[in-house]
Design goal:
Distance between the termini: 31 Å
Strand content: 5-15%
Largest sheet: 3 strands, antiparallel
Number of domains: 1
Number of helices: 8
Structural class: mainly alpha
């Protein structure tokens, strides 16, 4: 793990825990877009109170187990998977944001605005800090694997640049 965190392309070692600073940035975003009526009170409150989430292999196995317990899939089901090595941290931020903007601009209903959502994605990309042992790190390239938006972001980035 430390080997990955020591990669200067993806991570910056910091002397302090930036969590409070990042939470303040999320609160500022939430307040700004609430005033502009791009998000509701419910969303604003939910966003500033989100718990950090980190998924892992065990989580994936548990999800597959839940699917298996539901019984067989319909006969026309096609299960597909592929693996891109270290995909999430290797998605160039500019490439990913360009794909997100393109996808959002293609929406029929443009509410909330593309700018509102893109700013939220930018916060997710820029405010990705973690601790490993006593050391603090800030991810500076790509996205983390744990956030709820990471899979959609990766899908859009990969699909938007075919």
């Amino acid at each position: 793990m430390l080997e990955q965190l020591s990669n200067p392309l993806h991570y910056l070692s910091t002397s302090d825990d930036r969590t409070k600073l990042h939470l303040d940035r999320v609160k500022e975003w939430s307040d700004e877009w609430l005033v502009q009526q791009q998000i509701t009170d419910k969303i604003a409150n939910w966003v500033v109170n989100l718990e950090p989430k980190a998924g892992d292999t065990t989580h994936l196995i548990n999800e597959i187990d839940k699917l298996n317990k539901k019984g067989p899939s319909p006969p026309d089901t096609l299960l597909v998977s592929w693996d891109v090595v270290a995909m999430f941290p290797n998605i160039d931020n500019n490439l990913g944001l360009t794909a997100v903007k393109k996808a959002l601009d293609s929406r029929e209903n443009k509410f909330p605005s593309t700018k509102c959502i893109v700013e939220a994605v930018e916060i997710c990309l820029a405010c990705n800090n973690c601790q490993f042992g006593e050391m603090n790190f800030l991810q500076k390239h790509g996205t983390a694997m744990g956030p709820k938006n990471a899979c959609s972001y990766a899908d859009i980035a990969m699909g938007g640049n075919r």
